[in-house]
Amino acid sequence: MTTLTQDLSLFSQAMNLRTQRHQVLASNIANADTPNYKARDFSFENAMQNAMAGSVGGSVSMTTTSGRHLAGSNAGGSAALQYRKETQSAVDGNTVDMDVERSQIAENAMQYQIVSQLISDRIKGMRSALSSTNA
Amino acid sequence: MSLFNVFQVASSAMTAQSMRLNAVASNLANADSVVSADGKPYRAKQVVFEATPMGDNGELSKGVRVRQVVEDAAPPRMVYDPKNPAADEKGYVAFSNVNVVEEMTNMISASRSYQTNVEVMNTAKTMMLRTLQIGQ
After folding, report:
1. In what helix (H) or strand (E) does residue B66 lie, and over which residues does it extend?
2. Which of A15, A55, B66, B120 is the most buried (most CB within 10 A)?
């Protein structure tokens, strides 16, 4: 069984990435009428896998040459942004498809709430485990 | 908290869209103006949007700003009305070059974009409130 700290760091990483994605999608929607703006996004799955690989016995780990060096984690980075494939080209060179962006932002917000619910449940579980000894 | 950047981005878009709406209002109001402040026929004004980085996240969050307001280059609308004091020697009056249909569609587009940005802001707010409720 994973510890509460491990779980929480995983969840907070997921929340961080969801927040970043929300920013990217909000930028797309804000620039829906900007000429030559290209819509951007990143794959949450890939970013999360990268983050997990970095924090759990990682692919790239920092070398410590002294006992007083901190281990450091690769978990905090931001995701690699990509350009969205355009479905219908616009005259002004803008590639924002409002339907796609709105559905993605709704999905992203829902996933964020799921993660926050999971954190709450995890803490609730720990609380009930703590209180059951007193009963 | 980087969700605050979403507020900045959405509000910049709302400001830009309301400037666009302002230009539309001024164009529609002057659709039948014969002279503007400089003595020449009124020319339709259009805003030019530009993506601009917001907050400290670089590529991640891009807001909008109005780079400039340009005047429509279309020729003035010529109407034959010899009785009009502004008529030229051939009897034509140069009215503003505002295309009312274009302005109406512009207005609808601006108001829809504004609404969508309000929605984005509300979503971000809901997400933040959910974060505050963790563990309760």
Report:
1. strand B62-71
2. B120
